[in-house]
Amino acid sequence: MKFKIACLQMDIAFGDPANNYKHAAKLMEQANAQKPDITVLPELWTTGYDLDNLKTTAEAGAQTAKAFFKDAAVKYNSHFIGGSVANKTESGIENTLLVFDKNGDQAGTYSKLHLFKLMDEHLHLAAGKGKGLFSLDDHKFAGLICYDIRFPEWVRAHALDDVEAMFVVAEWPIQRMEHWRALLIARAIENQCFVVACNRAGSDPNNTFAGHSMVINPWGEVIAEAGEGEEILTAEIDLVEVTEARSRIPIFTDRRPEFY
Ligand SMILES: NC(=O)CCC(=O)C(=O)O
After folding, report:
1. Which CATH number fits domain 2-252: 3.20.20.70, 3.60.110.10, 1.10.3720.10, 3.40.50.880?
2. In the record, which residues are listed under signal peptide (predicted)?
3. 119 lines ligand 1 (CB under 6 A)
4. Whose CA is nearest to atom 8 of ligand 1?
5. Is 58 exposed, middle or buried (0-12, 13-18, 19+ CB in 10 A)?
6. The whole model's pTM is what?
7. Ligand 1 centroid vs 172 CA: distance in angstroms?
């Protein structure tokens, strides 16, 4: 099955959800010209990394974002990997990815498991507890958030659940852009799956972000890559390539987990 993907590599206004909602809505309207099957947004796109003010800007149960994606999915007849938002839960504020299918039904959710100390996440956020698995059109996918890509064992745990594409939403700074590219390509090669990675563009008071959203095939070939600025990156993925790669080099049956 083929899916047309649109990554909304948006700039994000620091701590200003109202403006970010307006801006995301405008980009969705523009992306609709390409009629994407799956639309992807970046990490913490409603607030950016304004972590000091999350107590006021985080949404209880991510309710506003959920209503926004429910409407957008039906309006644009697109599945949404709705980036992540600051989500007030009983355990604290989580960095939560939302997935809505094109009928407007929530298809998945995942709260970031690995908190990134270099950007103070551990001081403001509560870590998630489960995997980011979901299905769209009877295909298995996974959602990962930014720093998660530095944990190959976490990504592999999803691949072992027969995932065919991993969606990574991020706010990855430009200083470590070469890590971003290398890690994403490695995760695609070693798990023989598509990797669709949507980063943000622009700057906040502490960081300039890399952009360079990417779509990578199961051979590790970059089939689409954005520049540094705001951009809608589109690409088509054909999941038959996952089956082909996995039968040509059968790493999943050749594994020797009894020795690991
Ligand atoms: N938002 C993040 O998780 C950033 C991760 C990052 O920059 C890294 O180098 O890892």
Report:
1. 3.60.110.10
2. none
3. yes
4. 147
5. buried
6. 0.98
7. 5
